[in-house]
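Re: your question from the hallway

Yes, I did run it. Sequences:
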Amino acid sequence: MAVKIGLLGFGTVASGIPFLLKENGEKIRAAAKDKIEIAKILVKDDDEKNRLLAAGNDYHFVTDVDAIIKDPDISIVVELMGRIEPARTFIEAALAAGKHVVSANKDLLAVHGAELLAVAKEHRAALYYEAAVAGGIPILRTLANSLTSDKITRILGVLNGTSNFMMTQMVDEGWTYEAALAKAQELGYAESDPTNDVEGIDAAYKAVLLSQFGFGMTIDFDQVLHQGISTITPDDVAVAQELGYVIKLVGDIRETPSGIAAEVSPTFLPKEHPLASVNGVMNAVFVESIGIGESMYYGPGAGQKPTATSVVADIIRIARRLHDGNVGKSFNEFVRETQIAHPSDVKSAYYFAISTPDKRGQLLRLAQIFNSEAISFGQVLQQRANGDTARVVIITHSLSRTQLSNVLEKLEEVADFEVLNTFKVLGE
Amino acid sequence: MAVKIGLLGFGTVASGIPFLLKENGEKIRAAAKDKIEIAKILVKDDDEKNRLLAAGNDYHFVTDVDAIIKDPDISIVVELMGRIEPARTFIEAALAAGKHVVSANKDLLAVHGAELLAVAKEHRAALYYEAAVAGGIPILRTLANSLTSDKITRILGVLNGTSNFMMTQMVDEGWTYEAALAKAQELGYAESDPTNDVEGIDAAYKAVLLSQFGFGMTIDFDQVLHQGISTITPDDVAVAQELGYVIKLVGDIRETPSGIAAEVSPTFLPKEHPLASVNGVMNAVFVESIGIGESMYYGPGAGQKPTATSVVADIIRIARRLHDGNVGKSFNEFVRETQIAHPSDVKSAYYFAISTPDKRGQLLRLAQIFNSEAISFGQVLQQRANGDTARVVIITHSLSRTQLSNVLEKLEEVADFEVLNTFKVLGE
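Structure:
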């Protein structure tokens, strides 16, 4: 008897599923202890259905979601539509009907995960979503199954392939942000409205999920600070290289004495840091913990086959649990009371690029302002820029978010100083 | 009610277990659904017992293994003695007594794994050994649980920390093999007899286990070709760098049309390859597959806490399965009939360093010999070495093991040519 699945949507990722079921059928069947069969596929309308049939897709396409949700033969519903609605309503209905659900929808799970998981629990249904974070990298299941013995102190991740592709061009080729974006759009890596990718929003959704699996805490999406890559200039990139760093958009979740802090921001990574050599559209999750110490999980963050591989891994787990009669287990069982860190506990070194009139005493004044907030300098570089404007680059020692906002406020008050950019620096 | 465990041995790794049970107790208990308690610890003799007690270790030390194996309250036996005997006998007895067993003993599992797994199966006992490959990296469970949906085509791994530390010194600092070995011994990374580490034997044991989890095939240890790092010279390292490569000791298991091939050998990795930046004592496993494409799992290959973290992860899984009443599942369920590749199917590019008298026509003769085996050149470098001896470096295009042994035989027949080194080259 086969396990029958219903797909919601038949876009890029979904069409990778038949590939794996065909090319890896024997191994999948042995692992699931059952054949996995695509019973029905929901598409938008008859036009899409006819187009897909004409293109040789030999499946039972339906245009009404009830045809899947009310089908007693279907035990697993696979949602690959993306966005919030109607995916949310469909998943909720499927769970309420006792179907197990696999999804790759990070936006939805980051924002409405808690309520969906509650529905799943109520109906003893599984809701798995390995593909929602870092596409092909099996990071969520690894956190849930293997790193249970370890206490994680920090997770750093290159979590967005589009922005990482762009940063790689900006670092390796010296391209501007605009040129890198145009190339990413040309190659289909970036959408015409790239906001979600380049402003760190997509990575922030993933940070929400990683904080649940890694720290047992559900942080609201709004509590993840996010800063994008659009303000990064070739000057920033060049000075980073000169000082031994690579700039990347990095998701950062860590536990402090007062709670956890999550943010996504352009980050100076020391060249030797394992994340520094994660290039192009690849993703990686770097985990710091009291047991293993440092470990990293690297792979493609998106793409048809990698994402479908994670989706099928979830399907196999559910099918196997159905076979073994123990399907109740949550994907993530690690749950603690959520505590958000106080800004004074969230500490990092920072890079400041400040423009100032090229006149005597300016560096002294800058030093006084930083000193008044008890911030000390690690490295300082004064560069003459255009005409009579100098550019001062400072890498500080560790300071807290409280100190950071205080010093930025003070710098703002001095008409002479313009803070061009402030980025986090790792390893200082 | 707590799950009681018995430790066989209380060396470096074993003493990392109490650290995790204490520092991460809450999370471990939640995951296992039970408290995990160290009930008894087997030590060699009364001297060791008294020494450990005097050092403040407050455990129930025993000197007779039966005190653990015959204790009905102990459900999990953790073997951390290393070597083959008496570990093998003890594990077998524990399994036969219905105890579940966790081990980090790669030598034992690589050589006698099949018989131990048979005993485990017969007694419906679990035998888990995540720590046996790449210490802290959760690679075996990831292969068994997450990569079930994917078909793996090749696994490449930096699997031995000692030799990787040495190679890193040889590459980054230009040290000789002898200097790197002396340093590794001074730091305690290498034993006084370093054979297992530097000759690729330790990595070959791990390749046996990876071939089971990744390919479902049990390859005999003797079928893993292994070549060590002791013959690598500063000349080899320098020319590799000049040509854009880094030399590392790499375990390589891949599936060919006729079966799988496993070997451990010094390998030229292109500088951009993710494994090329795995330095020092760190390990990494790089997986090529039809779904994900390329993924890598990076972390410490040894050490007290990393290894103990993997051991405790296994203990948690067993404790949880005991709680859930489904403890029968094998660690690795992927089993196919073992097929060993025919040498003519195992293809790679190769590096040849050949010494030859510095006289006219030698390169032509070399080219003729390679051409007679249908081997073509990718890059050729002729370097004048000492006096009237020239050193010719060749990077070939892809050739099979059959072609390799044929050409080496022909080169041997020509008194003029001395093959100094032959190493595999990736990415050509």
